[in-house]
Specification:
88 residues, alpha+beta, four-stranded antiparallel β-sheet, elongated
Length: 88
């Protein structure tokens, strides 16, 4: 009796993404240039590289994105509370 390997959910999901491509959803907006994405089907995480292409999210890239996110927050905070324009 042959085993149907497509009945296994993990294999089925991987085949779907292999054949039709990933269906990425933005999970986190790091700044204007970088975002983190996750595939709805196989739950693989990705991020943008310098050229704007999606690459697999590693722990090193996740740390870099977190640092960029906090630098963006700090920049917004400083711009809003210390260098605001005075109304004349």
């Amino acid at each position: 009796m042959k085993t149907n390997y497509l009945s296994n959910g993990i294999v089925k999901k991987n085949y779907y993404c292999t054949l039709f491509g990933h269906r990425y959803v933005e999970t986190k907006k790091v700044n204007n240039h970088f975002s983190e994405f996750e595939c709805e089907v196989c739950r693989i995480q990705a991020t943008n590289d310098i050229r704007g292409q999606k690459i697999t999210l590693t722990t090193k890239l996740k740390d870099i994105n977190e640092t960029l996110f906090y630098l963006q927050l700090k920049k917004q905070f400083v711009a809003r509370f210390y260098f605001h324009k005075k109304d004349q």
